[in-house]
C-alpha cells in the first residue's frame, strides 16, 4: 500500500531514487580497506574500494569535501545546512602514483594510500589536518557507519553547540538527537540541539569538520581510542567537510561561509529582557513593565510564556486573562518595552472550535502523517495536537502567515519552543520514528522521509518558517525569533538559549562553556536563562548571574512556574538590587561596542562571546590555545576579557592567567601589573602572567586589551531611548611604541534593513604612542546615517598624571587648536571633549 501511495505522489524517477537510497541503507557489512580503482576529477579524485565509492573534492583551496556511497552510488547531493552558494569547485593539481591517489590545492594536500586504505589531509608545511586512524577504516554495518580519525595527544576539540560539559571536548562522547531535557545536568546528553560541527586545534594549527548528516549521530573524542576520535550515524549519508585554518578565526569564518552567518539582530535584542513562566494576567505584565521603569532597571523586552494563550492553543490570546491584549502591547511600546510571545508548533487538535491554525492546516494538507496516511497526533500543552510538516516549503510558508495578527498588533518577536519536537506521555519524549515527512523543498528530490531522518532538523525548519514568514509580513524589519531546538545552519533563522537549566551554582559555571561552544558553532546570538529556570536561586547566585550575563550576547532573566520571583528587584538585599542594576546599566553603556561587534558577527561569523584562544591562538608556551580547563574566562569581541571565578560559589580568591598582551582594569582604568613565576596546584609552572583577584560580590573582573579603543554611550533605559551627551571613546594605549591601537563603531537605525542601502554609520579610530606623547585619530565617517551625538569625549586610560598639552587638528590641516583636558586620578584617565564634524580629527597629547 505504501508503494502505491508513493507512486501516486511522485514521479517514477523520484520513486527510483527512493528505492536506490533504501538499497544503500540495507547494504551488508562494507569496509573501505583498500583502493581497487581511482580516477581524477576536475576538482578532486574518486576512489573505489570494492563496491564502495568515495569522492574527495575541493570547494576552495582550504575546504575539502568527502562523500562515500557503500553500494557504488553517492547519496543525494542535498543539504539543509550548506548554502547553495558554497557549492563551489577549486582548481586542483593531481598528485597520484602507484601507492597513493590524491591531489593538492594552493593550501592543502589530499592523499589516499591505496593498501591499506588511508586518507590524510595535510597543509603545505606538512601539518596533519585530518588522518584516518590506522587499523580502523570506514565500516558500514547495514545502514550505520563510522569514521575514525587519528588524535594527537596535544589536540583539542571544540564545538557541537551547547553540549554540557567543559569547553574542550577531548575525553568526552556525545549523541546528536534533539531532546526535551528539562533539568539537564553537566553529564546530560543529548539535549536540545544537534550541530555536527567541531573544531580541532593542535599546537596552533586549527581546522574544522562538519558531518552533514541529519540522522541520529554520535561523536567520540578519545573515549574508545585514546589516540583517536570518531563520528558516525545509524543511517543517512556519509558526507563531511574539512575546513582548514590554520588560525581559529579563519576556521570560524569559513564555517560561516559554508552554512551562513547570524543575521544582523535588531538592537533591542541586545538589551536586557525580562521573562518568566508565566506573566499573567494582563495586570501582572503591566506591573512588571511599570516596575522595570520605576526601579530604573534598563530593559527592552518582556516575554510572554504559554499562559497568555487560550487553553494553551498557539496563536490565540486568552480573552479573560488579557482582555486588552493589543492595547497592552501598545502601552508597553510607549514605555519603550517590546513584547516577545511564545508560539509553539503543536497546533491544538480542535476540529469543531473554529480554530484557524487547525482549520487552515487541514485544508492545506500541512500536517504530519502516520504511515497509513492519517494525521499524526501527539499530546503536548494543548492536549491532543497535530504538527506542521516543515520539510514542505508550502507548509512553512503557510506557517509564516499565522503571525500576521500578532505582527499587526505590534508584537515584536517570537519564541519557538518545544520544537525538538517534544511530545508528552511517551517514553521517547518525541514523535514515533515512522512519522512521515513529505520533503518538497528546492534542492531536494521530492520524497517521503521518516522521522528518524528529519527529527534533528525539524526545529530548525520550524524557526525557518517563522523567520521567513516575518520577513514576508514586514520585509524591512529584522525578525527576532528564538528557538530551543535546531541544527547546523539554524542560526540563519533564530537566536537560541541553553534550555531548561537550573538555579544552581554549577549551572552558572556551565553557562560560559556552553555559550562559547554555541558561538563557535554558528549560534553567536545565544544566552541562558539568567538565574536558572528550574528552582529558585539564592540571592547571591542571582546577583552573580546577572553580573556576568550583562556581558553575554542575550541577557534574559527567566524562571519556571512555581518558583519564587526572580526579577532584579526581588530575592535579595538592597545591595543586591543595586549591583544588579549597575551591571545592567553597564551593558547599556557598552551598547555601541556590543552593536559594533554584532555587526562584525553578521559579516564574518565571529561570535560576540569568544573563547580566549580565538583571539590568542598561541597563548600557551607550547603554542596551544588558552582556557581549556574550566572555560570561565571569555572575551567580548576582541577587546574585553571577562574573568568570572572558575568556581563562582567558592569564597576563595583566585588567579586569572592573562593572555600574552598588556591589559587595563576595566573598572579602574589602571594598567595591570601581573605577576609571573607562580606554580599551580600540581607544582607545574604557570605559563602566563597572572592577576590575583580578591573575590567580592561587587566586582566581576573585566579587563581591556592594551591598544583598544572602546566606544560607549551615556546611560539610557532602553535601546530606543536616544542618549543625551557625547559619544565616549575609551582609549587604552599600547605599552610599547609603534604597537597597534585601534577601534571602530558601527551604527544604524537598529531595526530595519536600510543599512543595505547605505544608511549606516561606520567610524574607525586609531592611536599612536610615541616618546613625545599620544596621538588619537578619528577617521572621517562612512555611510549616510546621522548619529545622535555632536561631541566626542575622548578618555585616555592608564594616566598617572595630566598631560602637558593637548591640541586638536583637523585631518586636512597641520595647525592644531589647543583643547582643555581634565585628569581623574581615581580612574587613571585624561579626558578631552571635542566636536565631531564627521570629517575626522587628531587629538595630540604631549607629555
From TrEMBL:
SUPFAM superfamilies: (Trans)glycosidases (SSF51445), Galactose mutarotase-like (SSF74650), Glycosyl hydrolase domain (SSF51011). Residues 605-710 form the Glycosyl hydrolase family 31 C-terminal domain. PANTHER family: ALPHA-GLUCOSIDASE (PTHR22762), HETEROGLYCAN GLUCOSIDASE 1 (PTHR22762:SF120). Residues 262-596 form the Glycoside hydrolase family 31 TIM barrel domain. Gene3D superfamilies: Glycosidases (3.20.20.80), glycosyl hydrolase (family 31) (2.60.40.1760), Golgi alpha-mannosidase II (2.60.40.1180). One of its GO terms (molecular function) is carbohydrate binding. Residues 1-23 form the signal peptide. Residues 726-788 form the DUF5110 domain. Keywords: Glycosidase, Hydrolase, Signal. The keyword Nucleotidyltransferase does not apply. This is Glycoside hydrolase family 31 protein. Transmembrane segments: none annotated. Belongs to the glycosyl hydrolase 31 family. It comes from the Bacteria. GO terms for biological process: carbohydrate metabolic process. Residues 54-220 form the Glycoside hydrolase family 31 N-terminal domain.
Amino acid at each position: 500500500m505504501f508503494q502505491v501511495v508513493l507512486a501516486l505522489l511522485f514521479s517514477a524517477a523520484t520513486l527510483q531514487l527512493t528505492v536506490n537510497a533504501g538499497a544503500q541503507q540495507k547494504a551488508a557489512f562494507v569496509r573501505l580497506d583498500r583502493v581497487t580503482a581511482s580516477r581524477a576529477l576536475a576538482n578532486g579524485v574518486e576512489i573505489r574500494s570494492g563496491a564502495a565509492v568515495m569522492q574527495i573534492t575541493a570547494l576552495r583551496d582550504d575546504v575539502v569535501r568527502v562523500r562515500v556511497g557503500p553500494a557504488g552510488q553517492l547519496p543525494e547531493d542535498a543539504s539543509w545546512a550548506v548554502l547553495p552558494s558554497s557549492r563551489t569547485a577549486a582548481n586542483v593539481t593531481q598528485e597520484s602514483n602507484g601507492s597513493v591517489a590524491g591531489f593538492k590545492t594552493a593550501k592543502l594536500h589530499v592523499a589516499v594510500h591505496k593498501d591499506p586504505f588511508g586518507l590524510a589531509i595535510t597543509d603545505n608545511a606538512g601539518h596533519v589536518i585530518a588522518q584516518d586512524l590506522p587499523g580502523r577504516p570506514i565500516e558500514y554495518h547495514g545502514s550505520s557507519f563510522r569514521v575514525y580519525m587519528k588524535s594527537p595527544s596535544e589536540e583539542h576539540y571544540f564545538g557541537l553547540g551547547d553540549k554540557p560539559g567543559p569547553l574542550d571536548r577531548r575525553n568526552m562522547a556525545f549523541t546528536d538527537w534533539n531532546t526535551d531535557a528539562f533539568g539537564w545536568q553537566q553529564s546530560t546528553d543529548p539535549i536540545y540541539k544537534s550541530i555536527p560541527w567541531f573544531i580541532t586545534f593542535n599546537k596552533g594549527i586549527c581546522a574544522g569538520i562538519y558531518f552533514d548528516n541529519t540522522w541520529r549521530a554520535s561523536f567520540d573524542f578519545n573515549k574508545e581510542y585514546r589516540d583517536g576520535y570518531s563520528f558516525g550515524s545509524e543511517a543517512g549519508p556519509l558526507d563531511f567537510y574539512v575546513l582548514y585554518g590554520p588560525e581559529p578565526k579563519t576556521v570560524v569564518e569559513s564555517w560561516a561561509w559554508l552554512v551562513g552567518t547570524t543575521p544582523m539582530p535588531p538592537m533591542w535584542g541586545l538589551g536586557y529582557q525580562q521573562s518568566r513562566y508565566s506573566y499573567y494576567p494582563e495586570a501582572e505584565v503591566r506591573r512588571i513593565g511599570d516596575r522595570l521603569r520605576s526601579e530604573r532597571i534598563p530593559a527592552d523586552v518582556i516575554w510572554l510564556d504559554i499562559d497568555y494563550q487560550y487553553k494553551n492553543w498557539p496563536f490565540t490570546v486568552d480573552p479573560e486573562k488579557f482582555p486588552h491584549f493589543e492595547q497592552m502591547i501598545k502601552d508597553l511600546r510607549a514605555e519603550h518595552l517590546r513584547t516577545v510571545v511564545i508560539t509553539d508548533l503543536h497546533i491544538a487538535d480542535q476540529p469543531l472550535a473554529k480554530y484557524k491554525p487547525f482549520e487552515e492546516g487541514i485544508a492545506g494538507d500541512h500536517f504530519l502523517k502516520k504511515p497509513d496516511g492519517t494525521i499524526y497526533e501527539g499530546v503536548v500543552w494543548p492536549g491532543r495536537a497535530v504538527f506542521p510538516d516543515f520539510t514542505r516549503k508550502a507548509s512553512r510558508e503557510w506557517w509564516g502567515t499565522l503571525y500576521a495578527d500578532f505582527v499587526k498588533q505590534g508584537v515584536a518577536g517570537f519564541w519557538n519552543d518545544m520544537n525538538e519536537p517534544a511530545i508528552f506521555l511517551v517514553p521517547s519524549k518525541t514523535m514515533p520514528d515512522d512519522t512521515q515527512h513529505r520533503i518538497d523543498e528546492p534542492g531536494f528530490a521530492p520524497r517521503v522521509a521518516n522521522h528518524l531522518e528529519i527529527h534533528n532538523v525539524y526545529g530548525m525548519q520550524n524557526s525557518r518558517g517563522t523567520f521567513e514568514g516575518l520577513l514576508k509580513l514586514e520585509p524591512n524589519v529584522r525578525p527576532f525569533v528564538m528557538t530551543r531546538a535546531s541544527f547546523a545552519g539554524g542560526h540563519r533563522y533564530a537566536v537560541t538559549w541553553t534550555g531548561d537549566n537550573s538555579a544552581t551554582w554549577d549551572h552558572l559555571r556551565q553557562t560560559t562553556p556552553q555559550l562559547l561552544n554555541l558561538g563557535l558553532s554558528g549560534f553567536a546570538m545565544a544566552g541562558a536563562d539568567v538565574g536558572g529556570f528550574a528552582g529558585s536561586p539564592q540571592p547571591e547566585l542571582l546577583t552573580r548571574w546577572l553580573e556576568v550575563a550583562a556581558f553575554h550576547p542575550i541577557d534574559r532573566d527567566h524562571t519556571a512556574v512555581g518558583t519564587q520571583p526572580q526579577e532584579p528587584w526581588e530575592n535579595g538585599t538592597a545591595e543586591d538590587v543595586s549591583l544588579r542594576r549597575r551591571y545592567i546599566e553597564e551593558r547599556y553603556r557598552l551598547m555601541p561596542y556590543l552593536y559594533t561587534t554584532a555587526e562584525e558577527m553578521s559579516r564574518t561569523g565571529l561570535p560576540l562571546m569568544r573563547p580566549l584562544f580565538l583571539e590568542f591562538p598561541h597563548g600557551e608556551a607550547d603554542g596551544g590555545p588558552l582556557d581549556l580547563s574550566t572555560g570561565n574566562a571569555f572575551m567580548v569581541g576582541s577587546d574585553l576579557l571577562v574573568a568570572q571565578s572558575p568556581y563562582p560559589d567558592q569564597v576563595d580568591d583566585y588567579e586569572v592567567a592573562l593572555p600574552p598582551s598588556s591589559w587595563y582594569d576595566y573598572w579602574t582604568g589602571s594598567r595591570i601589573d601581573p605577576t609571573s613565576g607562580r606554580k599551580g596546584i600540581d607544582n607545574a609552572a604557570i605559563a602566563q602572567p597572572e592577576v590575583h583577584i580578591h573575590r567580592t560580590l561587587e566586582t566581576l573582573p573585566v579587563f581591556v586589551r592594551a591598544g583598544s579603543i572602546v566606544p560607549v554611550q551615556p546611560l539610557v533605559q532602553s535601546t530606543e531611548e536616544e542618549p543625551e551627551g557625547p559619544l565616549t571613546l575609551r582609549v587604552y594605549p599600547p605599552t610599547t611604541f609603534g604597537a597597534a591601537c585601534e577601534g571602530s563603531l558601527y551604527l544604524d537605525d537598529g531595526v530595519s534593513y536600510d543599512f543595505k542601502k547605505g544608511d549606516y554609520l561606520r567610524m574607525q579610530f586609531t592611536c599612536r604612542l610615541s616618546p613625545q606623547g599620544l596621538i588619537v585619530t578619528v577617521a572621517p565617517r562612512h555611510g549616510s546615517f546621522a548619529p545622535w551625538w555632536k561631541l566626542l569625549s575622548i578618555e585616555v586610560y592608564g594616566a598617572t598624571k595630566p598631560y602637558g598639552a593637548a591640541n586638536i587638528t583637523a585631518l586636512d590641516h597641520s595647525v592644531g587648536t589647543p583643547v582643555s583636558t581634565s585628569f581623574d586620578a581615581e580612574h587613571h584617565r585624561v579626558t578631552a571633549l571635542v566636536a565631531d564634524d564627521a570629517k575626522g580629527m587628531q587629538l595630540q597629547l604631549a607629555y
